[in-house]
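User: My collaborator sent over this chain with a note saying "see what the structure looks like." That's all I know about it. Can you take a look?
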Amino acid sequence: MGTFMLMLVGGGGAVACGAVAAWLVSLCQFPGRGMFEWLLALPLAAPSYILAYAYGAMTWAGASPVVVQGFWGAAFIYTAGLYPYVYLSARAAFASQSACALEAARTLGASPWRMFTRIALPLARPGIAAGGALACMEIAADYGAAQHFGVTTLSTAVFRAWYAHGAPGLALQISAVLLIAATAFLVIERRARGRAAYAGGSTRWRPLPRVDLRGASRFLAFAFCAALVMFGAALPLVWLARLALMHANVEDIAQPFLNSVLLAGVGAVVTLLLATAIAVAARSAGGAGKFVLHAAGVGYAAPGAVIAMGALGLFGLARDAGIVGGLGAGLALCALIWTYAARFASAGVQPIDAGLTRLSKGLDASARILGAGPWRRILHIDLPIAAPSLIAAALILFVEILKELPATLILRPFNFDTLAVKAYAYASDERLLEAAAPSLLIFLAGLAPIFILTRGIGRARAGAR
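Assistant: Without extra context I'll predict from the sequence alone. Here is the result:
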């Protein structure tokens, strides 16, 4: 029940905040809009457990504007930290829409709110649904924030059964419940789309018309976006920066920083290639491709520790068969990359599939008539038009792997620490002074891809120069 309620409250809040923020930045004009294009994605770089510890420390010190604890504290953390999933996917969906429908509605006298609810929002529904699915599955699989606030979820039950009670079999049974729930959630989301088409309906691509907000609307739009940035990133990170200035050991975090960037970069490339292949196969391979697409989404809801246990099980079978010897550093890193791909494939598939769903069927039909083969259509038509979603998927994968903790703890080679491992080791002992520096580096490492993403989404719009 705790998992469902957190998904309902925290996930619902993330969907509402992310969709409205994406609409304001993509289709409205107000002071600070260009700045908020990338500022709104900043919370994506902060792990939920770091936000939980930061707000917990601020609450204890009386520095937080609100008391963050218990169920509502966890729901607040998930809303403030996970809305960028919806924001990025929805903004990519808005950026890929045809201007014709919006211009026609504007010409017919539709108000900005009516344009949003009747035109822009339905066309962006696949992107919003994809982002919402990612946020809800992240909540279902999260352990750190729920455990810190004392909320019982399926994920915390997995770790309690495994570590506290020494019952890995029970932990696997609870994990199976998570996998079943994730499968049911994805099936419901897919069926909700039905057979509706979400293509813009026109092959003429022009800059999207923006509504120039006036009066109080300008202030409300600015205040809404500023509040998301402040609660999702500014307040907790300023507090962590203050702690880091009190205790920062460069030698202690230099190597973990390099290890984190290396793993995140290689893992993101491998997982993006796998996710793209799955999304394309699902679009063109009929029932078998759809099954692979659904199967990829299941892994994202499973805790990383469970998938890491599966990787160790496969290694044990290979070792018993004499295929491999000991689990050396190279093999451990390969197993870790494989775990990242299995764990986060859905994080890449969901935005890419949403981007491919918006493609007009007439484009592929025209390409076939002109003699273009399947690979040429994919490389020269489908993927370029879905470029905003590809960029969004690349960023999500890089930052997700950068923040990943349980699987890295289990599979990393000896003396191969990452920033997430360092931060959690200190934070779990409530040593926030030591945890602040690696936590801030996780945030800073995510800034560059976030900046590239937010610029790329706008420039990758079909027809943009």
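A starting point for your reply to your collaborator: The first strand starts at residue 28 and ends at 29.
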